[in-house]
Amino acid sequence: MEKSFLNKKPNGSPGDGAVVVENIVKHYGSNKETVQALRGVSFEVKKGEMFGIIGPDGAGKTSLFRILTTLLLPDGGSAIVNGHDIVKEYKAIRKEVGYMPGRFSLYQDLTVAENLEFFATIFNTTIEENYDLIKDIYSQIEKFKERRAGKLSGGMKQKLALSCALIHRPVVLFLDEPTTGVDVVSRKEFWDMLKQLKAQGITILVSTPYMDEAGLCDRVALIQNGQLLSVDTPQAIIGQYNRPLLAIKAQQMLRLQNDLKQYEDVEDCYPFGEYHHLVMKAGYREEQLRSFLEQHGHHSAEVCTIQPNIEDCFMALMKN
Amino acid sequence: MRTLKFLLQKEFRQIFRDPAILRIIFLVPVIQLLVLPWAADYEVKNIRLSVVDHDHSKYSRQLREKITASGYFQLNDYSSSYNSALHEVEKDRSDLILEIPASFEKELVKEDQSTLFMAVNAINGTKANLGAAYLRSIIQDYNREVRLKWVQFPRFSAEQNIEITSSNWFNPLLNYKYFMVPGILVSLVTMVGAFLTSLNIVKEKEIGTIEQINVTPVRKVHFILGKLIPFWILGLAMLTIGLTLARVIYGITPVGSFLTIYCFAALYLLAVLGLGLLVSTYTGSQQQAMLLSFFIMMVFILLGGLFTSIDSMPAWAQAITKINPVSYFIEVMRMVILKGSSLFDIRYHLLTILGFAVVLNGSAVINYRKRA
Q1: Preceding omega of A234 cis (within 30 degrees of 0)
Q2: Strand, helix or coil for residue B222
Q3: In this complex, do A105 and B10 lie within 8 Å of one another by their Cβ atoms?
Q4: How many pairs of residues across A and B have Cβ atoms under 8 Å apart?
Q5: Would you state the pLDDT for residue B160?
Q6: DSSP, res B337
Q7: How far, in Å, CA of B356 to CA of B275, rounded?
């Protein structure tokens, strides 16, 4: 691999990743009421990878991003971004990373063009110099360039924020929940844009609470309560799922769920769209399940075996 | 340098796009200077007087006429019962009661002395104090007049008399507007300098733009300068508007030079900008910054010698005025505008304000951590 190129530092950083996180700990609050945001998180993101951090609200995603973008100091552990230590060499990191916070944080009273120009200037570059990188994204909002950023729609704001985060051609791009609160079409468009950026060789770390977006990443880390549950490719995470999984639908869904939780071969049962997903113990018997359902009056129950998706895996990991 | 230029450009664009800020900067000084000097008047006029006359003599009538002719008093009622006069005070229709005893004229003529009684409604302290003092001096004046009539010239008066005449230096007509306008100008400059700055910085915190700035290689010093310079310029612009208005409306032309005023103001603005910066480091929302600023401004103005003389404050309050930059600027403004003090005369003030600037900005920079 390109080990020699990346390990240009004399004492050698561990691994050849664009981002190497080791045992990061962060807590908030005073002694009385401490909130553990991150409890020893470690992972490594390879150069040019699209890495997803998937987890529910409050899992610690934003804290992790703020630490990696040098906005927050960790209470323990260390991390290296593009070969620079996040604490000692924060200045170097700020030149080389792009960060798009979860909340729209551009100047609402400046126009689209002024915002972009402003961020280009403070990174000591010009729009022209890196226009090729943002062209596909910026061209979609260019016709509104005289409009103030605060007056843009959600999807356009997001495109502008991405343009501003990219204007200095960052090596690593951090996107904190970029698709939260964005409609389905814009979400899809956004992920297409990310794919193009990845093709340009930019390492992308993206966090999201949406499980369906996990499958679009090269690798994902599932995070909950400040701890990583699993770091792997989406396929491998799904591959590790080793229990029979059923989808089930009946007339009275709530009663169905409560009844099924009483059944001895059922490990977990949770709603999933119009079905319930039913995690069974290995070696369950379908006839027994059906007669159990009949006994409890779920006559027209519809049961079929399904392939697990990333959300099922997450649910399973959370249970353990 | 290029970064700073763009930060300044951005800052000015934002300021000039915010109609509320523009209004504050240009309308507030105009309104304050148009209205306040007329209302914030030390002179007490229209003191409502109740005269209780038990004498109904020529002398008592003369005294009454002399009092009402002075222009300070309005005769509220003229009765012969103290209780009815007190009732007027209770109804807040009267501020002062003057009671003339039944034998006033007789005693004055025969025994060469008489006593008057004065009761003051002390709800409004200033009015009570000044009203009583005015009345006392009018009565003394009356007393002298009466005596002069009796003394036959050229016979030498047996009674010794010291008469005091005074002349008012630097403000010959004791025009209180000359005194108020410079002070009001100071409070305006302070508002722009300290409070618009803190609100501006806190706004960036509140809407999260500071996060976006913090992940860029922008240097701390550039960011802070980018915030301070625009308000430094606006503060001086406001001072210019104020001085122009003072000239046009009140005909106040500084006896001293404009250079002295601007030199001091430039330094003073550095100090209050530092204060604004400090406030912004302690607050997280515009609301907090607003309330904290309001509190500080109240203390500064009330303990700054704008409305009340610092020399008559208790010792502890005088100690506070020593650490109140506003009091120094008010004093300097009055010195330069009324007395024509030069830079050399205000050298200690300059040094003190320089000290404030260093301490306030220093602690603000220490407090302002780019990394939370």
Answers
A1: no
A2: helix
A3: no
A4: 69
A5: 61
A6: I
A7: 9
- For the segment B27-53, the average pLDDT, to the nearest whole number, is 81
The whole-angstrom distance between residue A203's C-alpha and the CA centroid of its chain comes to: 14
Answer whether A285's CB lies under 8 Å from A244's CB. Answer: no
For residue A99, what pLDDT is reported? 93
C-alpha A114/C-alpha B207 separation (Å) is: 18
Interface membership of A105 toward B (CB under 8 Å): yes
CATH 3.40.1710.10 fits domain B47-150:
yes
- On chain A, the residues whose CB falls within 8 A of the CB of B211 are 71, 99, 101, 105
Yes or no, beta carbons of A70 and B371 under 8 Å apart:
yes
Q: Which of residues 207-236 of A touch B (CB under 8 A)?
A: none
The answer to whether the beta carbons of residues B183 and B334 sit under 8 Å apart is yes
Are residues A122 and A266 located together in one domain of the fold? no
Residues A124 and A258 in one domain: no
Closest CB to B2: pick one of A73, A107, A121.
A121
Nearest chain A residue to B16, by CA: A109
CB contact under 8 A, A70 and B13: no
> Please, what is the average pLDDT of chain B?
85
Strand B47-53's sheet: what is its strand order? Answer: B73-79, B47-53, B96-100, B117-120
* Structural domains counted in chain A: 2
Confidence label for B339 from pLDDT (cuts 50, 70 and 90): confident
- Phi (first) and psi of residue A22, to 5 degrees: -130, 110
Query: How far is Cα B14 from Cα A290, in angstroms, rounded to an integer?
Result: 68
- More confident of the two residues B179 and A176: A176
A31-59 pLDDT, tens digit per residue, is: 777 888 899 899 999 999 999 998 888 88
**Both structure tokens of B186:** 């100071």
Range of the domain at A180: 46-66+87-237
